[in-house]
Structure formats: structure tokens, C-alpha cells
Amino acid sequence: MTTLSSSTSSTRPTRVRWKGGAIVFFLCFVAYLDRIAFSVSASPIMKTLGIDPVQFGLITTLFNIGYFLCQIPAGMLVQRIGPRKAMALSILAWSVFTACTGLANSLVMLAMTRFLFGAGEGPVFTAANSFFANWFPPRERGRANSLMNAGAFLAPALGAMLLVPVITAFGWNAMFFACAALGVMSCALWYFSVSDRPGQSTKANEAERALIAADSENTGSVNVRVPWSMFLRQRSFWTIALGFFGTLWTIQFFIYWLPFYLEAARHVPFAQVGGYTSLSFVCITISVLVAGALSDAILKRTGSRFIARNLVAIGGLVLAAVCLVLSTTTQDPLGTVLWLSVALGGAGFAQTLSWTMATDIGGQYTATVGSWMNTWGFVAAAIVPTVAPLVAKQFGWTEVILLNAGVIVLGVIGIALTKTNERLLSGQQSASTIAPAPTPTR
User: Fold this and answer.
1) Residue 38 clears pLDDT 50, i.e. is over it
2) Tens of pLDDT along 121-141?
3) CB-CB contact of 197 with 135 (8 Å)
4) Structural domain containing residue 170
């Protein structure tokens, strides 16, 4: 009896891939905590350096410009050296420039450090997505990709509560130094805990490697030549970018303008703005986890990536657009926040599954497709901080919300036209049929 039990235990797959996913969750939390730190410390920074809100907004735009300009190079870096090294370099870079933010003593220095911070953080999501492509079979990739998005959105939900006490006690400069130190520790955790592939890991047993290999395709290859000319001639390469542009437009609006919108347009007392903002980001944190689990379950049942990825993402975007419009019809602040929270949660469905779609159509070029997609998402993120207040000044904040709903339509069109059941390049049908789970023996 004991021998049989030991044999069964030794052949049970380890769960090293999920431990790696948990580390990605933490890394993305730290990355977005560093971003939120800048927003949380807006008032003391502006007071110390003598800058106004418009200048502060332009500095935020510079971060996004640095981020999207480095997406394609980030994808090339991940493709060349693998996600483990690329992620480690990214974490070190963003940690250095986070510390430099705390040293900034002028508008110019602050602008330069935030631009370089955005550039340094560029490889994070691309590297994480490539790690998931290597370590997770298709039937688990929805849940895997939801981890990095959940970690990212948990930071805005908890950021104010975690960072404000540090600012109050030690000043805004010290907060950036603390975030930089956390980044360096995160880098060490990542670099010494993960491997690029299951075959390189000393922690994953043969059963786990077999589980991954049996249900996986050739994804995330290192140091392969990227056929850009062929990619640029294929519809899905452009439509997945359009879908992500429409998705991130609204999500980034929430990140940059939700607190101000609630206070200025919906007359929410300042004391309550933080709680309402946290509610919205708790909603999207939960929704991205639900999206990943739901998508994987549908894939297992139907075998269709288009149904499991595209249609679920489209459903989330349609819900987001409807709730944005409905949020403008109520005068009750709590009602407004609830509609907006559901809208943000719906957009989270599309953000999570877009990364999974990038793996579906990218195959061994996952890093390239993911970086291309994220480039266009952060083109939207660079536009929103400036366009939103300009539209509000000319027409009103209600029109800004309606504009967001309109841009979501572009996201729906892009995702609907992306052929997730076909790989880029070959146009051949990908291995999208998921084998049924084995019948338990008695």
C-alpha cells in the first residue's frame, strides 16, 4: 500500500508553472505599484517642483511614449535572449529610474526619468506572456495570462492605502526609493526562481514536462528571425492591434482620470474618491481572473479558440460600452461608480484574452506579436491623458465617457476580425482542439 502511494505521488505532475505564474502576478503588482506611486504623489510633487497639472499630465504622457516606443525592441529582446533575462533587465531598469524619480529636483529631470522609466518597463508584459507560452498548454493560458493582469490591477486597488502612509511619514522621495528597493528584490526573486522552458528547470518533474509538451505547440522560440514583411501583410496582425487599442483606451482613462472625474464631474467628496476608485479596480482584478477561467473552460468544451477567446472578449467590451453609456444617466455617485466598475471589469476581459490571442496566433513569435499589440495599446494610453481633458473642456465630461464607449467599438471590430484559430505566416489551422479529460479509473 505504501509503495503504491509513493509511486503515485512520484508520477504526479509538479506545479512549477503555477509557482512561476504567482511570481509574474507579484512582478506585475510591483510594476503597477511603481506607476501608481507617481499618481498618488501628484500633489506633493507639484508643490515641491512648482509644476502645474497640465505639466504633470504631459509627464505622464511621456511615460507612455517611452513605453510604446520600446515595445518592438522589447519584443526583439525577448525573442533573442528569452523571457527570464529580458524580464530581469526590465525590472532592474525600472527600479533604477524609479529611484531617479525620487532624486528629481526639476521639471526636466522628472520628465526624463519618467520617459526612461516607461522605456525600461517595456518588456514586462511581453516577457511574461512569452513565459506563459513556454510553460502553459493552451487549455491553461487564459488563467495564466489573467495572473499578470490581476497583479497589475491590484496595485491601483491597494496603491493609495499602501503608499500614502509612506509619503505622510517619510515624504514622496522616500516612497520612490522604497519602490525601487522592492523592484530589486523582485528581480532577484524572478531570476533565481524561474527558467525559460520546462526542459531547463530542475524543479519541474517529468510528469509536468510531459503534461505541458503533450498539449503545446512550438511557442516562444529564442533567437529566431522575425519575418516582419509577412506579418505586416496579414489581417490578424493588424486587427489584434486595433482590438488592443480600443481596449486599453478605456482602461488607461480609468487609471489616469477616474479619481478626478468622480470629484469634478460627479461631485464625489474627495474623502470618498479613494474608496470608489479602489472599488473599480477591485472589480477589474476579479474580472480578469474570471475571464481566464471562463475562457479556458469554454476552450476545453468547444475546442474553438475563436469562441473561447474572441467571443468572450467581445462580450466583455460590449458590456463595457453599454455600462459607460448607462453611467451618464444617473446622478447618484454610487450608481455612477457601480456602472463604471462593471465597465472596467468588462474591458478587463478583453485585455486578458488579447494576450492569450497573441500567443494563439503568434506561436514561436509570441514575443513579437505581443509587443506589436502592446505598442498600439499604449499609443492609446499616450493619447488619453491629453485628449480627455481637452474634450472635457470643450464639450464636457459626459462626452468624454461617450467617446470612450465609441472607441470600444473599434476594439470589438478588431477582436472580431482576428482569426484566432489560425496561426500567422502559414495560415494553416492551428491545433485548437483540446482533448477531453481522461475518464477517472475506479
Assistant:
1) yes
2) 989 999 999 999 999 988 899
3) yes
4) 17-198+230-416
Quick check: is 323 in a domain?
yes
Q: What's the domain count of the chain?
A: 1
In one-letter notation, the amino acid at residue 299 is: L
Dist CA 284 CA 393 (whole Å): 28
Cβ atoms 218, 413 nearer than 8 A: no
Bridge-partner residues for 429, per DSSP? 422
- The Cα–Cα gap between 305 and 236 comes to 14
358 against 5, higher pLDDT: 358
How many other C-beta atoms are found inside a 10 Å radius of the C-beta of residue 21?
25
Residue found under cell 500500500: 1
Query: H or E stretch including 311?
Result: none
Structure confidence at residue 431 as a pLDDT band (50, 70, 90): very low
**Cα angle, residue 377 at apex, residues 413 and 250 outer, rounded to 5°:** 75
> Whose grid coordinates read 460590449?
318
| pLDDT of 399 over the 80 cut | yes
> What is the rounded radius of gyration, in angstroms, for the C-alpha atoms of the chain?
22
Residue 172: Cβ within 10 Å count: 22
**d(Cα 393, Cα 265) in Å, to the nearest integer?**
12
Cα atoms in the Cβ-side hemisphere of radius 13 Å centred on 369: 33
- On whether the CB atoms of residues 209 and 199 are closer than 8 A, the answer is yes
Task: Give the three-state DSSP class for 422.
Answer: strand
Report the pLDDT value the prediction gives residue 269, as an integer from 0 to 100: 79
Model confidence at 161, pLDDT cuts 50, 70, 90, reads confident
Residue 429 lies in a domain: no
In a domain, 384, yes or no: yes
* Whole-angstrom distance, CA of residue 162 vs CA of residue 277: 14
Decide if 411 is inside a domain: yes
Q: Is the pLDDT of residue 395 over 70?
A: yes
Name which of 206, 199, 183, 221 is nearest 87 in CA terms: 183
Can you say how many angstroms the Cα of residue 252 is from the centroid of all Cα atoms in its chain? Answer: 11
Q: Do residues 142 and 353 touch, judged by C-beta distance below 8 A?
A: yes
CATH code for the domain of 251? 1.20.1250.20
Cα–Cα distance, 145 to 156 (Å, whole number): 18
Summarised one tens digit per residue, pLDDT across range 274-333 is: 788 888 999 999 999 999 999 999 999 999 999 999 999 999 999 999 999 999 999 888
The Cα 91–Cα 109 span in angstroms is: 21
Residue written as grid cell 526639476 = 106
Distance CA 46, CA 181 (A): 24
